[in-house]
Amino acid sequence: MNHSLLTLAASLTVVSGAGLAHAEEIASVNTNFRFTGSDRVTVEAYDDPLVEGVTCYVSRARTGGVKGTLGIAEDPTEASIACRQVGPIKFVQPLKQKTDVFSASMSFIFKTLHVVRIVDAKRNTLVYMTYSDRVATGSPKNSVTAVPVPAGTTIPVK
């Protein structure tokens, strides 16, 4: 299966919903060669749908092989996040104190990757955390990053 079809298959695993960000794959590197499709680490960009000017970059392991190509493999729980101000910050609407801004399947049914936005009003900062969960048990593996909002701009909170 070629890279474009793999990207399409990965995009189709995105859990879509109102207000959730969508992934844009920036790049990937192979980590374990397989004739049926290599394991890889991808870097995906997510523009926060309610905060213009903030983009989160998530790197995560993707399982290759036949199961990975078919979208039925379980991806490892390792993920890392870095969010940055990439333009003037503008709030589309007031934000909840804590909410999912992105979710993606990491297995056929049971495992999900989450990116959560947390408002730290005291420090006028947006905190983003990534973690994964499972139907039965989640993983304590997580990563966190923060984007300070410029002085004079108050984060509107619901």
Automatic annotation (TrEMBL):
GO terms for cellular component: cytosol. PANTHER family: PROTEIN CREA (PTHR37952:SF2), PTHR37952. The keyword Transcription does not apply. It comes from Caballeronia catudaia. The keyword Signal applies. Keywords: Signal. InterPro entries: Uncharacterised_CreA. Residues 1-23 form the signal peptide. It comes from the Bacteria. This is CreA protein. Pfam families: CreA (PF05981).
